[in-house]
Specification:
- The chain is an alpha/beta fold.
- It is built from 10 helices and 8 strands.
- The chain has helices at about 10, 50-55, 60-70, 85-95, 115-120, 130-140, 155-165, 185-195, 215-225, 240-250, and strands spanning about 80, 100-105, 125, 145-150, 165-175, 195-200, 230-235, 255-260.
- Bound molecules: zinc ion (ZN).
């Protein structure tokens, strides 16, 4: 991320909400090239035991950490994650590393539950086959989760998050919205009656210090606290890049992260 370093957000070090940021690899070209010109400020040193493939996962891993830190998850909390995709599974790993007692995952038929198990998570529920709120209540002794993470971007899952948390609980909206959101009156009422705290999250915190999201990410990769390698489901050379893009565009096979490696 290339913040403008002029706006109020930048002046207070909250670069993730910069008014006018640029990105190497999305807003500006970069990444799919032999050489990329990067400002020194953006360079993050990685440990010798972290591969380039793992390091290339730093951005989504930092986005997931940022979302979790927004809520301030505490040791012993139960965290429910709606949407066990790449970001959802990274949030799950962070929640566990952060001391969550229980990490509950809710997905649909579209999710690969074998893949979720391969990452070491077994408390998941297929919402295509039943009521996820009832399941979360069963898993929490009728209390509800302490924190709910919405990693889908749909009104139904957003509403389910509000219904799934306990009184005084926290809900973080992570997923980019796929359309307008409307809530049933009783669902909206959960925010008021349970005195919920609602958080938004955007990008990740990068500021060149060890406690910024990116600093914690590279440390966690080195120590093995967070495992990103299993999330790389396909790897292609630069010449085969089209194949990787087609899998993502047409969903011809299951993927989490498709990696382009210049070897
Ligand atoms: Zn700025």
């Amino acid at each position: 991320m290339l913040p403008c370093k002029k706006c109020n957000s930048c002046n207070t070090g909250i670069f993730e909400t910069c008014d006018n940021y640029d990105y190497l690899g999305s807003r500006s070209d970069g990444g799919f090239a032999e050489y990329v010109r990067v400002p020194v400020w953006n360079l993050v040193p990685i440990a010798d035991n972290v591969s380039f493939e793992e390091a290339a996962m730093a951005e989504p891993t930092a986005v997931a950490l940022h979302a979790l830190r927004r809520a301030g998850v505490e040791v012993g909390d139960t965290v429910v994650i709606y949407g066990p995709g790449t970001i959802g599974m990274l949030i799950a790993q962070w929640a566990r590393a952060w001391g969550a007692k229980k990490v509950l995952l809710v997905g649909t038929d579209l999710n690969n539950f074998e893949f979720i198990e391969s990452l070491g998570f077994y408390d998941y529920f297929n919402a295509s086959k039943g009521d996820p709120i009832k399941w979360v209540m069963e898993q929490t002794g009728g209390k509800g989760a302490d924190v709910a993470m919405e990693a889908v971007g749909a009104a139904v899952t957003a509403g389910n998050c509000l219904e799934s948390v306990c009184k005084g609980g926290k809900v973080v909206f992570v997923g980019n919205p796929h359309g307008d959101f409307t809530f049933p009156q009783n669902t909206y009422w959960q925010i008021l009656r349970k005195q919920l705290s609602i958080y938004g999250t955007w990008n990740s915190r990068y500021d060149n210090t060890p406690k910024s999201d990116w600093g914690i990410v590279v440390d966690a990769m080195a120590s093995g606290a967070v495992k990103v390698k299993p999330l790389i489901t396909q790897t292609f050379s630069l010449e085969e890049m089209d194949k990787g893009l087609e899998i993502m565009k047409d969903h011809t096979e299951f993927y989490s992260k498709v990696m382009i490696v210049n070897d």
